[in-house]
Amino acid sequence: MITLCVITAIIGGFRLLSFFGWTFQVLVMRLAYLMRGKRMSGRPWWYRRFTERGER
Fold it and tell me: Which residues cross the membrane (predicted)?
């Protein structure tokens, strides 16, 4: 019975989020964007720091 309540709450939560425009796909894409970082830099800061010292 607890499992049914938990699953119903999860589905209801996603339905509520999708009502405001935050679907599951949007949430996954947003999380991937936050994990990836800014688009301006092609490499992480630590990679640029050790490989591009003389190019500035």
Answer: 6-33
| Count of structural domains, the chain | 1
**Residue-wise pLDDT tens digits, 14-28:** 999 999 999 989 999
Q: Can you tell me the distance from the alpha carbon of 23 to that of 48, in angstroms, rounded to the nearest whole number?
A: 35
Helix 2-19 vs helix 24-36: angle between axes, to the nearest 10 degrees? 80
Full-model pTM: 0.51
Domain contains 56:
no
Contact by Cβ (8 Å): 41, 48: yes
Query: Which has the closest alpha carbon to 28: 20, 36, 40?
Result: 36
Phi first, then psi, for residue 31 (nearest 5°) are: -65, -40
Please give the residue range of the domain that contains residue 43. Answer: 2-51
